[in-house]
Predict the 3D structure of the following.
Amino acid sequence: MKTKNLLSGFFFACLYTFLILFPVIILLLGPKFSGRPSLLDLSVSLAFVGLAIMALQFVNSGRLKFFNAPFGTDLVYHFHRQIGIAAFFLVFAHPILLFILDSRYLRYLNIFTSPLPVKFGSLAVLFLVLVVWLAEYRQKLKIPYWFWKFWHGIIATVMVSMALIHIFLTGNYVSQSWKKELWIGYSALFIAMLIYTRVIYPLRLTRNPFIVSEVKKERGDVWTITLNPPVGKEVHFHPGQFGWLTAWKTPFSDSEHPFSIASSAEQTGTLQMSIKNLGPFTEKIQNLKAGSQVYVDGPYGSFSIDRYPEAKNLVLIPGGIGVTPIMSILRTLADRGDQRPIKVFYAYQTWDAVTFREEMEELRQRLNMELVYVIERPPENWQGESGFLNSAILKKYLPEDWLGAETEVFLCGPTPMMNAVEKALHQTGFSEKKVHTERYSFA
């Protein structure tokens, strides 16, 4: 599986690079017009690359499982965000270089008097500024995720459409029919992905609802919902993966939220998600009733032990509600009768709030597992580890032979905790490629 993922990842990376550079290659292969400044060609080339990236954003944000699998959904979404910023600067460089080339282009800044092709180009740049600005400052502006996601898609669609119209109306670099066909192809890809993500895929989800069978209170203000799949179907996933949950609304509403799957991958008749009360959506989870209909889009993610079957030792480090995918891993290992050595470092703020504390003890009896609690604010007479998980605690429990190639480390928790523990793991002696993380900051 590891070799397959590496080959698939290499293939998609090469294909993506080719697709964003292909318009420039075509531009360079076309006839050269005498007297056309090189700076003009550079300006247009940068804009073409930027627009190609923007058109392909609908692919790398479309949750295509075959595309996401080699990299992991969290990495793909992080790439989506960073490459979007890069595309912004590439496109923005287009008018800047034109202004440098010839100051007469400055008159086109007046969108009301500029020619029609320039109007569309100017609007495309304005919408691009808006979509990037809202993505970067959504949380500071306290814009609800579902509201932002809805308008993010609409504004991005309008922006790419305006840019494509600008290219066709200007015509200087697509005067030949085969060049027009190239951009028509990009437009078709853009439209196809838009229809797939906004219409076809949500429609498929509406036809396969899950039914809530139980809602259970856990320690730490966490609620576990048990879901039954559509009649006649089973749930298949790898331990550690997650899904997007939609409740009280339809999949067309853009009100979905990502949650790790907590249940064992061997139990295909049900699916469990354990959700901590952290916001407006999660605080309502407890109000779900048995028999309620919800929708689950998944599974997604590469945070799974199944990707590393050759691992002889496992180090699992949950922090807070980051225990959810770890519970899926432990439950699956127990159901499989897997007796590989496991060390679990479970970090939590207080002892009373430790989620799944009782079940952890049961799993310790079923598995070849050492469990180390690290409590930030321990109770009186606490005999275990306290404070924050650091390299000193890790070295205390990890033998020297666990630091080599035969050990895989899985870390999930709040971002500050994960950043600190990743640093501690590297100080302990683990290489970066041996530490696997799950982050849910998709926007």
